[in-house]
Each structure stands twice: as C-alpha cells, then as structure tokens.
Amino acid sequence: MSTHRPHLVLGMPRPGIALRSVKGVVLTLCCLVVLVPFLGVLATSIAPPKQVAAAGGFVLFPKGIDLSSYRAIFAGGVVTRSIVVSVLVTVVGTLVSVTCTALLAYVLARPKVFGYRPLMTTVLVAILFGPGIIPSYLVVKQLGLLDSYWALILPTAVSAFNVIVVRSFFMGIPPELIEAATIDGAGEFQVFRRIVIPLSKASLSVIGLFYAVGYWNAFFTALLYINDNAKWPLQLILRTYVVDQSALTGSALGSVTEAIPPQQSIQMAILVVSIVPILIVYPFLQRHFAKGVLTGAVKG
Amino acid sequence: MALPGVLLLLLFQYLPILGNVIAFQDYEPYLGISGSPWVGFRNFAVIFNGDPAFLHALGNTLAVLLLQVVFVFPAPIALALALNGLVSEKLKRFVQSVLYLPHFLSWVIVVSISQSMLGGSGLLNNWLRSGGHEAVNIIGNASIFKELLTSQVIWKDTGWATILFLAALSQIDASLYEAASVDGASRWSQLWHVTLPGLRAIIILLFILRLGDALTVGFEQIILQQGPVGNQVSDVLDTYVYNNGVLNGNWGRQPPSAW
C-alpha cells in the first residue's frame, strides 16, 4: 500500500479543522469499539477473583494480576485437551494443505504437462461452486471419517483459490533454472524440492498462514463431523462454555488443587488463549493479506 | 504429483455436488444414494406448499440480507472516507491495524466477545447497574436479533473491507480535486462529484459480488446464537438446512438455494 500513499495526501484537499475533528472523534470511537472489548476480555481473565465477583462478572481495569484461571484451564481437563487438539489439527492440517497445494500448483504452472487442461478446469470450477452442507456430511460419513481428526483436515485441505495463487507465483520462476536442473539430471521431484520450494519459501509461508488461521478458527467442520466431545477442538469448547455458558466444573477442568476461579474469568482466559495465536501472526497477515487483496482487485 | 490435491478436490468438492441428487430421492442413510427410492419433485412440493419453518427461514434470510445491504455494505465506504483524509500516516496505520484485527477472529470468538460485553451479566450491563440504571436486554432478545447480527458483522468486517475502497480512493486523479476547487466546489460537492464517482466502479463490482451469494447470510454466526431466541426468528436458509436436514434427518428435503 505504501506506493499509493503520496496520492492520498495529494489527492484529497486538506480538510478544514472542523471536519478533521469530526473525523478524529469518529475514528477514535471506532477504535474504542474494537479495543474496549479486548481489554475487557483480557482484564477479566487476569483480575483477582474477588474483584470479578464484586463487579458481578466483568471488569475493565484489573486491580492486580491473578493467573489462577489460566492455571485452571491448563490443569489437564477438557480445555487443555481441546487446545492440544486445535494445535495438532492446525499444524498437521497446514502441512497437508501446503504440500498438496504446492504440488498441484507446480503441475499447473507448466501448461505443457499432460492433462493440463482438465486439471486446470477442475481447479477453476471448484472455486466457483462450493458443496452443500448435507452432501458434504454424507461424503465424510461414507468415508468413515466422522469423529476422526482427519474430518477436520481433509475436507478443507485444498483451497482451489490458494492453488491458483501459488501457481501464479510458480509461473514467475524463470524456466531456465528448471531447464538447467533438468539437464543436470534432476527428476521432477528433485526440481520441485531443490529449485522451486527454496525459491518460493516466502509465498508458501504466507499461504501456510492463510491455511493455519483457517484451521485454528474452524468451527463448522468440527460441529458437523465431531460428535465425541473428547475430540473437540478449542472452538467447540468456546461454543459450549463461553457462548452457551455451560458451567466448567472442577472435574471437567482436571486436577485443580486451588479454589476454582469465577466462571467469567475462566471463560475469558479460554477466549484469550484462542485469540493470542491470531495476534501473534497478525502483523504478517495484515501485511500480506492486504497486498493479496489489492493485487487481485485493483490494477496499477 | 498433482494427485493428492486433485483427489481431495474431487472427493470433497465434486462428489458432494453430485450428492445433491438426493433432492430427488426419499433418501435413507442406511440405503444410500443407490438404494433410496426416486420421488421426482415431491421434496420441492413440500417446500413450496408452505412448510412454515421454511417460509420463516426464507423471510429471515431476506430480512437479514436487506439489513446487510443497507447497513453493512456502505459502512466501509464511510470509514474509508474518514481514514482517507487523515494527515498523519502513522496515526492512519495504527487505526488500520486496530480496525482490521476482528476480521481474523472466528465467529465463535466474536460471538463470545459480544456476549461478554452486551450479555445479561456482561460488561455493559454491569456498568449500567452499578450506575443505578436498568439493565438492557440485547443478547437473546428476539425482537432485535437481526439488528444484533448486523452490528456484529459491521464490527468484524468493516475495517477489513475498507482496503479496497482505500486503494480505489488513492487512484483518483488529484487534479480533479484541484479543478473542482478552482471552480468553487465545496467539500461536499467535491465528495459527491469527484470522490464518489471515482469509487463507482469498485462499489458496483463489490455490490454484484455480494448479491452473488445473497442467500448466504452468516451461518456460523446464527447457529451460535439461535438457542435463546428460537428458530422462528433466527433460522435462515443455511441454518434451516442444518437443523432440518442434519439434526432431524430430512435429508432430501432441502431448498435448492442451499446447494
């Protein structure tokens, strides 16, 4: 976006003081509307139990820091297990996704390959049409994947759109490099592994982040395909204990030795744990996603 | 090399599309697609003869769509205009970072946050009560459910949606503004005659894209919140399919729009 900046300042005439202060107020309000809830969530998760109880549930400014709700959710109960499930599904899923996407994109990046047209059509049509809920459910059921962690990974593993994005990146690799490697006796897989992958680490990691955020946030696949609540990922735990407000008992939390913190604190601690991974990758997401949205949409 | 990727696409994207033939069957899971009897258009008749739940779902979908077109669609345009004139680049980047963030959170997280803030014992009501005011009933209030959905969408995605409009704004030729102000155009007429026409192409494009999936109005968001308000107010086509098909087992009888 940085290349556009000079225009922005030049383009619009400088606003007058009245308009500028109106804008300032509006934007400040917008930022507060986004930030205050996050602050409330974080504050309630770390506030001392007494303060939370006295406030009747939620606080905005904690009087001290008390991590007992975090100890409670990491004590080895259902929440801990769901975090492990979510992390594993995200890691394995991202690996599967990036591998399949890159391989498919590599084949499509070379139009001379046998079967190029039907392959390309298959991918492009998949962008246009999404499958319905019920038929997808039936397919997963027929494959015997219900209540399997693979049901959280395989149905969403390959995004046709991402294949096309990676393909267009691969097409930018000079064909001379690949030719040279072939002449030196490298096979298809060797070219892919030694030439193509090292040259596209950056863009593959962006696509990887794309997928990872998707897996981490995935709620509906889990709702549809996982009935066994011992296999729930974090998003379903959030649904049950935060959105639906089911009480988290001591036994569900695992071996908690101290007094159980207020429910709200535990709920907000779960919420914080589900947001933090997104916050960690957010700077990369913002930079690359914004660029990606723009390359697709605006020319010049 | 392409095999694993193509196989996954065929299995999970193409096979389910073929699976839509069960719309013409009296589908029984234990008989499978090959064994279930064909019933022609009978499933459609059940819908169009006025299954009340289906009509509610259709009506709600259109109502939510209308709210989204009226309030969600213009919001990023207004926000982009507000951001565009900011003199300080640093400030602008900070505001953008804050406002883009909710886009990356899942609906479960967004709904959780909004309940914690606006729910019966949420932050807002705690604050109102401690100030001696009456608590307001926002979450689980059937009469404002659709407005709640709309505000959540605005909270989550408005910031992110400004990206395209900001980019389009930066493409507007600066000399147009100069010419307009030389001709004595006020700021408002500049906005009306220069800025908005400059955005026209992108606005139309995005509007058409939005109408393309007009009947998709927040499945996850609604599934998560329809418990307290009841299905009559909250069911849209997608959730109707899920509640009626997956949970109640009426496999074949799904509206074609939900494919």
TrEMBL record, chain A:
The record places domain ABC transmembrane type-1 at 83-285
Query: Is Lipid biosynthesis there in the keyword field?
Result: no
Q: Name one Pfam family in it.
A: BPD_transp_1
Membrane topology term: Multi-pass membrane protein
Q: What keywords is this UniProt entry annotated with? A: Cell membrane, Membrane, Transmembrane, Transmembrane helix, Transport
Write down the SUPFAM superfamilies for this protein, in alphabetical order.
MetI-like
Gene3D superfamilies in the record: MetI-like
Where, subcellularly, is it found?
Answer: Cell membrane
Transport as UniProt keyword: yes
The main location class comes to membrane
TM spans (from-to): 78-107, 119-138, 150-170, 202-226, 266-285
Read off the PANTHER family from this record.
ABC TRANSPORTER PERMEASE PROTEIN MG189-RELATED-RELATED, POLYGALACTURONAN_RHAMNOGALACTURONAN TRANSPORT SYSTEM PERMEASE PROTEIN YTCP
Instruction: Indicate the family of this protein.
Output: Belongs to the binding-protein-dependent transport system permease family.
Name of the featured protein: ABC transporter permease
Q: What is the lineage of its organism?
A: Bacteria, Bacillati, Actinomycetota, Actinomycetes, Micrococcales
